Amino acid sequence: MASDEETGTVRVDSWIWSVRLTKTRSQAATACRAGHVRVNGERAKPAQTVRPGDEVRLRLAGLERIVVVSRIIRKRVGAPVATECYVDNSPPPPPPTALPAVPVRDRGAGRPTKRDRRELERLQGL
Q: Which PROSITE patterns does the UniProt record give (predicted)?
């Protein structure tokens, strides 16, 4: 039977961690189990293999990363080397002004009153 080195495949959770798309391998595996990782449009389990040419979509912190695997690596490497292992096709992040404003209360103002809470809910559209 052929080994991973001969076939040029590696686990998707290991590859995501190796190219520094997530901080830890367990975070990558958790994202796979939660359905936040897709390989070629299909939901990926942590043990699914990826090979060069596969498209990996990763959703973390509300942003979607779309990368195409260009090289397989098994061990975590430095950031300059890691960026050579994929082609980033991610859309640009939204500008900061497009994000909704978070209501800010004055420090020491205490707990919101019922009226304050109703105003906040009205502003948030709840």
A: S4 (PS50889)
